[in-house]
Every structure is written in C-alpha cells, then in structure tokens.
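cron nightly-structures :: item 1 of 1
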Amino acid sequence: MMTTERSPQRADGWTAAVRQRLGLGRLLPLGGAVDGAWIAETAAASVLRGAAVEGAVLGTLRIGPAREATGVDTGAETGRSAGAGAGVVAETGLALPPAPPSGLPPGPLRIEAEFRAAGDRPLPDSAAALRAALVTAAAARLGLEIAEVDLRVTALLDDAAPDQVTDPADAPSPPAPAPVAKTDTKAEGRAGEAAAAVPGVVSLTRVLGGAVHTAEDHIRVEVATAGDHRALDVARSVRTAVSAATADRLPVSVLVTDVVEASGDTR
C-alpha cells in the first residue's frame, strides 16, 4: 500500500489516527538532545520539496528514524512519548524537557523518497544530485540530522514533460496549523509574548493544545517559523527567550508545526 505524509508507516491505529487528524506526520527532533526542539514531518517535507534538482520530480517523501536508531524502543510509534519526563544531560547537568506526545527522540534521521527521473542523464547522477540537495536543505534550512537517504526511481520523464520538481498528485497539502493572532499572545502569558517576539517566529500555533503548554516539570511552546530563517536557530532563540521570561526556570521545548514561505519564494 502506498503511503503519504498523512498515512504514517509502522504506526499503530491510535497514533496514526491522531497524526492524520492533526496533519503533522511524525514529530522529528531538531538538532541534538540539548536543543529540546522538534518539527512536524509535514513542515519539514514542505521545505525539502523545494530542494529538488533539475530532471527529478519528487513523489512520496517520508522522514523517520535512521536504521541505526530503529533498534531502540523509542516509544514514538506506540502512542507514548519517548521522553515521558524531563531528562538530564550528563555533560552539563542541565535538565531537558520531555519530547512532545509521540515525538521521536533525538537521533539521526532517514529520508525515504520516490522520484521520476529525466531519461537524458544517468540515473545514478540524478539520484546523487537529489540526495545531496535533500541533505543540504535539511541541515541548512531546518537543522535536521540526516544520516540516510533512500531514493527510488518510479518512472522516467518524457522530453515533453512539464518542468516541475514535485508531482502534485503525490504531494497533498496538509491543513495549515491555526495561528494564534498576535493580539491573543497575551492570553498565553509571558512565555507566549516572549516566544512571539523572537525573530523568525511567524506566529504561535495551537495544534497539540494551547500554544504554551505548562506542566509541573516543563514548558512546551508551539510556533510557525519563517522560511528564510533556519528552524533550529529560531527554536533555540525561542527556548532562550521563554526561559528568561518565566520565573520558574522550567526546561523549555519548542515544536515547529509549520514553516511559512514568503509569497513568491520558489526555493
């Protein structure tokens, strides 16, 4: 059965249903364990689709844990968070926030994608160029650690085929997370106001609940970031701003639910 961003592989029925309803896909770690940041798979995929190369038309694209990480019970595919409670980094002694519900733990990731290739160039060259473009975009524009890229050619392009980099039939647009109006950020408290003021934050979002979720041992903030800012850098700045704005100094995590491209941006 063909899968898309909104039909996750290897997920049980409950987790798959929740993800489909929210339109997020997997929740992927941004950066390393100390960064406390995650991004929705659909948001990441929308950026990577703009990184395709001439002569390659992307179809299905999925992002998940690399093979070297799948031998560990992450809990991410069973409906429970891999980090049920805040952890501690041994090197620094700093408390870390838990992963968001069903979020993947920090670690290397794997891209699986299908593409149609131009018939006038060697397939290995097309695959190598596309692989390099995806890895570069993942690191430079998002902050994802990509260890593996698995590409599969599904068809050859005709010479008369339209010049495009993404097959619209294989790239459904998920519903955009509802933004929190700027006038409503005060309702999210000092943490929300601090997060909304960070450069690169387009808006706060409410997908897993409130834009700012405060628990006894951590704070989680949801944001949509601008496409011309690296998502990981924005998330780090949000963590710093929220930590400084709150008196409890609880560990802060950030979930990027959407990456918003400027009008006319064709990257």
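cron nightly-structures :: done
The CA atoms of residues 105 and 155 lie 35 Å apart.
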